[in-house]
Specification:
With 377 residues, the protein is of the alpha+beta class. Helix content is 56%, strand content 12%. The protein has a six-stranded mixed β-sheet with strand order 1-5-6-4-3-2, with helices on one face. Strand 3 and strand 4 form a beta hairpin. The radius of gyration is 22 Å and the shape is globular.
C-alpha cells in the first residue's frame, strides 16, 4: 500500500497525516497511560520514532507539525479535571444515571468536570428523574473514594473505563439539598435521550438491544447484557456501533431519497451532514460513530476544495481532529477497535475476502486481550 511506506527514501506527500496521527496517539498514551519508567521509555521511543520519520520525510511541513503538537498539548492540559466539590452545584441528567428504588448511581457534572456518584434519593428526586427532569444538588456533604479496578482476568476495569471519560474519583453523597431549574436546549437534549431510552426498552429484547447500541451508542437494558457478551465472545463486536457501518447505511438511504427528489449533490451533503450531526448528539459522541461521521465530513469538504488526500491520510486526519476534540479518545477500547478495524481494512485491501475476515477477527481478539491484560496492571 503506497501511502503506508515509511522508508527514509520515500518523500512523496501521502503519509503525513497518518504519521501525525500516530505521533499524537503516542503522546496521549504518554500523558495519560504511562504509570512507570518502563511505560515512559517504551512510549517515548514510539514518539521519537514517529517524530524522526516526519522530520526526515516531510521537511517542508515542520511548521504544520509544530502547530498540531502545540494545539494538542494545550488540549491535553485542558482535559485535566480539577476536583473540588465544596460549594459546587452538581447537575444530574436523567439519561446519565441509573435509578433504582433506594439508590441513584451514574455520572454527574459540575463546573470543573464530571464525577461518578452515588446517593440515596428523596422521593422528590426520584420522581423528577423518572420523569426526565434534571436535578441540581448543592450544599453537599460527601465522601471521596477511588473507583474500583478489576481484580480478576476478563472483569471490567471501571477505573480505566471512567478514566477515559476524565473521571478518576467516586463521590458518595451523604447529605445534600436540591433544586430544579428552567429548561435549556441542553436539558431538552438529555430529556430526548432519556425518552428514547425508555421507548427502546418497550421493544422486544433483541430489537431493544440493537436500537440502543446503534442509535444511542449504549446498552440501555441490563437484560440484554448477555447479547452483548455473546458478540464479544464471537469476536464480531465491531459489527455493532464500533465499526460505524450503520453510518454508511444512513448516508446511502438519505442519498437515495435526495436523488429521488432531485436534490443537488451540495444540498444532499448538507442534509446528510445535519442528520449525522444529530446522530452524534444522540449517541453521546460514541467513538465509532463519530469517526465515521468525521471521515464523511472531511472527505466531502476536501472533495469540494479539490484537495486530493488518499484514504490512509484521510483516516489520519480524522484521528487528528477526533483527538483535538477528545484528547482521551484512545483511552477507550471502542475507539481503539474502531480505528484499528478501519486501518486493518486498508492494509489488507488487496487480500481475498476470506483472508480479510480471518485477519480482522484475529486482530480484534488480540487487541481486546492486550487491553484486558493491561487493564489489570
Amino acid at each position: 500500500m503506497p501511502a503506508l511506506k515509511i522508508n527514509l527514501n520515500y518523500s512523496k506527500k501521502p503519509g503525513f497525516y497518518l504519521l501525525v496521527a500516530f505521533l499524537l496517539i503516542s503522546i496521549s498514551f504518554l500523558f495519560f497511560e504511562a504509570k512507570s519508567y518502563w511505560h515512559v521509555g517504551v512510549i517515548g521511543i514510539f514518539c521519537l520514532f514517529f517524530s524522526f520519520l516526519l522530520i526526515k520525510k516531510f521537511k517542508h511541513t515542520k511548521l504544520l507539525l509544530l502547530v498540531f503538537i502545540i494545539i494538542f498539548s494545550i488540549r491535553l492540559f485542558q482535559s485535566i479535571p480539577l476536583y473540588s466539590y465544596q460549594g459546587q452545584v452538581i447537575t444530574i441528567y436523567p439519561d446519565q444515571v441509573k435509578l433504582i428504588p433506594d439508590y441513584v448511581s451514574g455520572i454527574g457534572k459540575f463546573k470543573n468536570g464530571k464525577i461518578t456518584l452515588g446517593f440515596k434519593p428523596t422521593s422528590a428526586i426520584r420522581n423528577a428523574l423518572s420523569q426526565g427532569e434534571k436535578v441540581l444538588l448543592f450544599n453537599i456533604k460527601y465522601e471521596v473514594s477511588e473507583i474500583e479496578q478489576a481484580h480478576n482476568f476478563g472483569e471490567i476495569n471501571y477505573r480505566h473505563y471512567y478514566a477515559s471519560k476524565g473521571i478518576k474519583e467516586l463521590v458518595n453523597i451523604q447529605n445534600y439539598q436540591f433544586i430544579s431549574s428552567s429548561y435549556s436546549l441542553i436539558d431538552f437534549y438529555h430529556y430526548l435521550r432519556f425518552k428514547l431510552e425508555r421507548y427502546f426498552t418497550t421493544f422486544p429484547r433483541l430489537l431493544s438491544f440493537f436500537a440502543g447500541e446503534l442509535i444511542l451508542g449504549e446498552n440501555i437494558n441490563d437484560d440484554t447484557q448477555q447479547i452483548l457478551d455473546n458478540y464479544r465472545n464471537l469476536g464480531v463486536i465491531h459489527l455493532l456501533s464500533i465499526s460505524g457501518l450503520h453510518v454508511g447505511i444512513y448516508t446511502f438511504v438519505i442519498s437515495v431519497i435526495c436523488y429521488f427528489f432531485k436534490i443537488t449533490e451540495d444540498e444532499s451533503f448538507v442534509i446528510i451532514s445535519f442528520c449525522l450531526l444529530l446522530g452524534i448528539l444522540l449517541c453521546a459522541g460514541q467513538a465509532g460513530f463519530v469517526r465515521s461521521c468525521l471521515t464523511y465530513f472531511l472527505g466531502g469538504l476536501l472533495k469540494k476544495k479539490a484537495f486530493n488526500l488518499n484514504n490512509s491520510d484521510l483516516l489520519g486526519l480524522t484521528a487528528i481532529v477526533h483527538l483535538l476534540i477528545n484528547p482521551r479518545l484512545f483511552m477507550n477500547i471502542g475507539a481503539i477497535l474502531s480505528y484499528i478495524l478501519v486501518l486493518g481494512l486498508k492494509v489488507i485491501k488487496s487480500e481475498s475476502s476470506f483472508k480479510q475476515g480471518m485477519l480482522l477477527n484475529l486482530r480484534d481478539r488480540k487487541i481486546v486481550c492486550v487491553r484486558m491484560n493491561y487493564s489489570l496492571i
